Amino acid sequence: MNQSFENWELIVVDDGSTDDTKRVVSTFNDKRIRYQYQENAERSAARNRGITMAKGQWICFLDSDDEFMNNHLQVLDTFISENQLAPSIISSGMLAKNQQKTSERVPLDLTKNTLTEIGEKFLLPSQVCVHRSILPNEPFDVRFRLWEDTHLWLRIAAVHPIYQTNVITTIQHIHPEGTVVQGMKKVRLTEVRQYIAAIQDLRGNYTALFERKLPANYLTNYTDSKYRMYLYQARQNKQLRISLQIGWKAICHKPSGYFLSEFPKIFLNKLGIGIHEN
């Protein structure tokens, strides 16, 4: 409501919350704000619900713990108008804030392979704007609750242009209850499977879409890197059983001397010996 650009609509999708979201939304007397409740179906379904309700030509996403600075919509509107953009995907600059520090998220380098840039640097939904005409054919995949955003951005960017304004217009609030922080504090095998399944879905079901657009074996190697990420964190957490399970799955995915060398570290970390800090 503090946006300098005023021609907006806000759709609040309440994905089966147990707090007082409905009451809070009802206190705002503004016809531009609409509330929609649904039984809990996770974030992909919630975003898709909002997309179907939207009336505007360009759609932005704002997760519940992130923030649009008051210039966000104005910067995007000006950028779209000045560049006369066709249906595409746009990203904006972002600040990441936690209790200790504030840092700028590294923007994409659009002089490089756009798809690998998205895969390596990520785009949070709150810094993304997509033309409405794209999303009915390319919705968020409701099977996934992790990596579901990157899954979509890669599918879109393989077909449509991607643009970027480096102006910082959004804030990511990193806090102890956030999905990423919680996921690293205690690694769960179900979440590892979810994350890997989303990557493998692109690798197995979208081969033609990414042909000659991604380096050979990119998604195979990407999967390997995520196994390494989860294995490292699990053994840092002294999660012996989970570490062993992840290590085994990683070796089955792609036999590697790296993963074999990790097994002694798993037991040493459990004993508090040789902990490798970030």
What are its keywords?
alpha/beta, Spore Coat Polysaccharide Biosynthesis Protein SpsA, Chain A, 44% helix, 8 strands, 2 domains, six-stranded mixed β-sheet
Report on the architecture of this protein.
- By secondary structure, the protein is an alpha/beta fold.
- It folds into two domains: 10-173, Spore Coat Polysaccharide Biosynthesis Protein SpsA, Chain A (Alpha-Beta Complex); 179-270, no CATH class.
- Helices cover 44% and strands 17% of the residues.
- It is built from eleven helices and eight strands.
- The chain has helices spanning 21-26, 42-53, 72-83, 114-121, 148-157, 179-185, 189-205, 207-210, 218-236, 240-253, 257-270, and strands at residues 10-15, 33-38, 58-60, 66-68, 89-97, 102-104, 128-131, 162-173.
- Strands 3, 4, 5, 6, 7 and 8 form a six-stranded mixed beta sheet that branches. A two-stranded parallel sheet has the order 1-2.
CATH class of the largest domain: Alpha Beta
Structural class: alpha/beta
Q: Which sequence of SSEs, written as H and E, runs from N to C?
A: EHEHEEHEEHEHEHHHHHH
Mean pLDDT: 92
> Distance between termini?
39 Å
Helical fraction:
40-55%
Give the tally of β-strands: 8
Name the beta content range: 15-25%
Radius of gyration: 20 Å
